[in-house]
Write a structure and sequence with these properties.
The chain is mainly β. The protein has one helix spanning about 160-174; strands spanning about 1-20, 25-45, 50, 60-65, 75-80, 85-90, 105, 115-120, 130-135, 140-150, 155. The structure holds calcium ion.
Length: about 170
């Protein structure tokens, strides 16, 4: 698993032509920095399983990715995989035994080619969890999650995030 960050600069050029006064006004704006993060990983037989919806059997492999954002704004997440992916976004925490608790959004095929696509407004100081799983039970394979928004995102596997948080809490209370 690894994170990659890409920075895009988008510039716009507008040309307004006023025929009556026969002049051309050119306005150039350099705005709208968009940043993209890419996280690459895989689901395999060693991955954790859960029931992604109530009434389903708990045999869907998943990876839960914890993250924070540094800037408030609209963030978009989508997957790239040969698997038919499913994505869910949670606020605060994710409990695999209660998949609807804290859930903000979920998507199956919003991106075409059976890939999920989620856009949501996110706030700094909040903790979020993106769960990557599959539409079909027991499906395995590689995947990438691409994020685009006003700031890069560092995805951390939830179990690792919780270990770091517990260690940090112990240091503060020692
Ligand atoms: Ca899908």
């Amino acid at each position: 698993m690894r994170n990659r960050f890409i920075r895009y600069e988008i510039s716009f050029n507008f040309a307004l032509k006023n025929a009556e006064f026969r002049f051309i006004l050119l306005i150039s704006l350099e705005t709208a920095y968009m940043v993209s993060s890419v996280y690459e990983s895989l689901l395999d037989k060693r991955s954790q399983t859960y029931a992604r919806e109530v009434c389903l059997l708990p045999n869907y492999f998943y990876e839960a990715l914890a993250f924070n954002v540094s800037i408030a704004g609209d963030y978009t997440f989508w997957s790239h995989s040969y698997m038919n992916t499913y994505g869910y976004l949670y606020r605060d925490d994710f409990n695999p035994r209660r998949p609807t608790m804290n859930r903000l959004s979920g998507d199956d095929d919003g991106c075409g080619n059976q890939q999920f696509h989620i856009t949501h407004r996110l706030l700094p100081s909040m903790k979020y969890v993106l769960v990557v799983t599959t539409q079909l039970a027991s499906d395995t394979g590689k995947f990438s999650v691409i994020e685009m928004g006003p700031a890069p995102i560092q995805f951390t596997p939830l179990s690792e995030y919780q270990r770091c948080r517990a260690f940090s809490d112990r240091l503060h209370h020692a």
